[in-house]
Design goal:
The complex is a heterodimer of chains A (about 290) and B (about 350). Chain A is mainly alpha-helical. In chain A, about 55% of the residues lie in helices and about 5% in strands. Chain A folds into two domains: about 10-180, no CATH class; about 200-275, no CATH class. In chain A, helix 2 (about 60-85) crosses helix 4, helix 10 (about 215-225) packs antiparallel against helix 12 (about 255-275) and helix 11 crosses helix 12. The radius of gyration of chain A is 30 Å and the shape is elongated. The two termini of chain A are about 35 Å apart. Chain B has helices spanning about 10-35, 40-65, 70-85, 90-110, 110-135, 140-145, 145-150, 160-165, 170-195, 200-225, 230-260, 270-305, 305-325. The radius of gyration of chain B is 29 Å and the shape is elongated. Chain B starts with 8 loop residues before the first helix and ends in a 13-residue tail after the last helix. Classes of the chains: A mainly alpha (about 290), B mainly alpha (about 350). Chains A and B meet through strand 2, helix 2, strand 3, helix 4 and helix 5 of A and helix 1, helix 2, helix 3, helix 4 and helix 9 of B.
């Protein structure tokens, strides 16, 4: 139902047109999963390349091919796919993630190169530390080794150290991994009605009554009108609640809930929008309730 | 008594603009499903205009409309269109070719200062390694591991040293494996050199200095046996390209180190983003230099033993790179991406 109570990790990007756009930062877990998918793809392709190398006519040509292919695949898979797929490798595509320019411009090839070359240190470093710590600094002093390991750990945990979950490659390239924006359908206006706005003095509201609620409540009501239109019970509950809150004239209690809510929504929105134009935007309702108008 | 109909300005606004939004939505849907290549030329040409109009609608809607659905719709549509409009519409090969034709030499020229630092450190290492080893050959063992020296140490005879320079390998097939291995290893070191620059550039200085030391020490060993000319003839044909590539990667690393330590007017993050991507592009281009160096080292050096030819190639590559990095796209930025 309503999603606006869920807090999301968002970032506003300002494109050259100057109107900030909202993107949702991707969660670290998703990125890890996307990365694992890519690693599997790279692994499979490397295996195929190695086999192809084995099939080549002579041994040394095969070796040459295999070495070259492994180097190119491991270093350029991410780069080529991010350039081709507008910031999406296969793994990112599968999880609905994409790389964008943090500064709002086009995602340049250079940025993609930069963010992916950093993987050398981010991934290989910790791997070497875990698998063969002696290979890193042969004969280095103990304290130097500790410093080195600590430094690599900082690289690895960087995404958790900043708000936007940027890894070192993103920091260097000025990029951001976000969720690909999902389409939202444009619905009918919430105030669309079954009847034309007829003369009916029962559905009129005073400025004080319309001043009770804020934007938040208005949008809850919009949600109700849009998605729970058929739910008679819900409409009646909401209707009763609003009536009691704004001090609705009890002699007019026989109104149709849908008509009442539609009219109230429209009048409320007109008033709040007019206030917003004058620079007063009220987010929330006032506390307490109005006294019934006699 | 007739109720005055309520006129919602935001609804009128929506009715006026909805057609544009829908058209953009259709185009974006098609691009998302089939890629920009499948859109007709006219539709593609209209895209930026529709995008800007929708973006301005979003801006207006934020200030006049309280219709959540319209706001969400415009937010999502604008973000999706932004991604489509500001995205690379070229194939990776085209993009690389374009970069090599202008962006790369320009970026390298912009790195002139770090390139000088990087070259200076390599040269200092080289000089120190050379003079220290010449004055006391025993010091050689201090910088160069036995693996790397492979018998080319101060104790080796002149004949042995000479044979390492002119041993010709008749099996061309093995050379391809050898040269691809050289390329892959060197390029990895180059990329590492760049990546390490993130930490204030300190590891880069160390790497450059250390590489210089090794070369200097080896040069001293050959010098002591009167083989200097032959050694440089062996080293320079690929060395010019390879050392240039190392210097460029080092410079790329140093430039991001500098961006972190001395961000200037920008914030650290901002400065890192500006310099980091330029440096990343430089390293990407430099991979090609490593490839060439690997080919020269793997094939040419093993097949050609004439000293004149070796020096000729060395000078040739030096001229080629100088011309490329100094002269290409001098007017700078004329071929920049046009705004969408």
């Amino acid at each position: 139902m309503s999603t606006f109570t869920v807090s999301r990790r968002v970032r506003r990007i300002v494109p050259p047109e100057g109107v900030p756009l909202t993107f949702e930062i991707s969660a670290t877990g998703e990125r890890l999963l996307a990365f694992l998918i890519d690693v599997v793809v790279v692994g499979v392709v490397c295996l195929v390349a190695a086999l192809l190398g084995g099939l080549a006519g002579s041994e040394s040509l095969g070796t040459a091919f295999a070495i070259l292919a492994l180097f190119l695949i491991t270093n350029f898979y991410f780069i080529v796919f991010e350039i081709r797929g507008q910031g999406r490798t296969l793994g990112k595509r599968a999880l609905g993630l994409r790389v964008i320019d943090r500064r709002g411009g086009a995602l340049s090839g250079e940025a993609i190169f930069a963010r992916n070359f950093l993987r050398q240190v981010e991934i290989l470093g910790p791997l070497v530390v875990v698998s063969a710590p002696d290979a890193l600094w042969p004969g280095a002093a103990g304290w130097l080794r500790v410093c080195g390991v600590a430094w690599l750990v900082v690289f690895a945990v960087m995404p958790w150290l900043n708000r936007d979950r940027m890894r070192v490659g993103d920091l260097v390239a000025g990029t951001l991994v976000v969720k690909s924006p999902l389409p939202v359908a444009l619905a009918q206006g919430a105030a669309s009605r079954r009847r034309s706005p007829v003369a009916d003095p029962r559905y009129r509201f005073s400025a004080a009554q319309l001043g009770v609620y804020g934007v938040y409540e208005l949008q809850i009501l919009e949600d109700v009108l849009r998605n729970r239109r058929q739910d008679r019970k819900a409409l009646e509950t909401v209707c009763a609640k609003i009536q009691s809150k704004i001090g609705w004239d009890p002699t007019h209690l026989d109104v149709d809930p849908l008509d009442f809510l539609t009219d109230f929504y429209e009048a409320q929105r007109a008033q709040l929008e007019a206030q917003m134009l004058m620079g007063e935007r009220r987010e929330h309702k006032k506390t307490g309730r109005l006294h019934p108008r006699r | 008594m007739a109720r005055p109909p309520i006129e919602l300005r935001s609804e009128k606004f929506r009715a006026d603009r909805e057609k544009t939004w829908r058209e953009l939505e259709g185009a974006v849907n098609r691009i998302e499903q089939m890629g920009p290549a499948r859109l007709s030329r006219q539709a593609l040409a209209r895209l930026p205009r529709l995008y800007r109009a929708t973006l301005s609608s979003l801006s207006v809607a934020r200030s006049i409309s309280l219709d959540r659905n319209v706001l969400d719709y415009l937010e999502s549509l604008s973000a999706r269109a932004f991604v489509c409009v500001y995205s690379n519409k070229r194939s990776p090969m085209q993009a690389c070719w374009r970069y090599l034709r202008g962006g790369y030499p320009r970026a390298v020229r912009a790195l002139a200062q770090p390139v000088l630092w990087s070259a200076a450190f390599l040269c200092i290492g080289l000089a120190v390694g050379f003079f220290v080893t010449v004055s006391d050959p025993e010091r050689f063992y201090g910088f160069v591991s036995d693996d790397m020296a492979a018998g080319r140490d101060p104790a080796a005879s002149r004949e042995l040293l000479e044979s390492t320079l002119y041993e010709s390998n008749p099996k061309t097939e093995q050379l391809s494996a050898f040269s691809s291995m050289l390329f892959a290893n060197n390029a990895k070191v180059g990329i590492l050199c760049f990546a390490l620059g993130f930490v204030a550039g300190l590891p880069v200085f160390f790497l450059l200095l250390y590489n210089g030391l090794i070369i200097g020490a080896l040069a001293a060993v050959f010098h002591l046996r009167g083989l200097s000319l032959d050694l440089w003839g062996w080293l320079l044909p690929h060395g010019i390209t390879e050392l240039l590539a190392v210097v460029l990667c080092g410079a790329a690393g140093l430039s991001i180190g500098r961006a972190v330590v001395f961000p200037g007017r920008e914030t650290r993050l901002e400065s890192l983003a500006i310099h980091g991507r330029r440096a990343g592009g430089v390293v990407g281009g430099t991979v090609l230099l490593f490839l060439m160096a690997g080919l020269i080292e793997g094939f040419f050096r093993q097949l050609v033993t004439s000293l004149t030819m070796r020096y000729a190639l060395a000078i040739g590559t030096a001229l080629l790179w100088t011309a490329y990095f100094v002269l290409v796209d001098r007017d700078g930025g004329s071929s920049e991406e046009p705004a969408p």
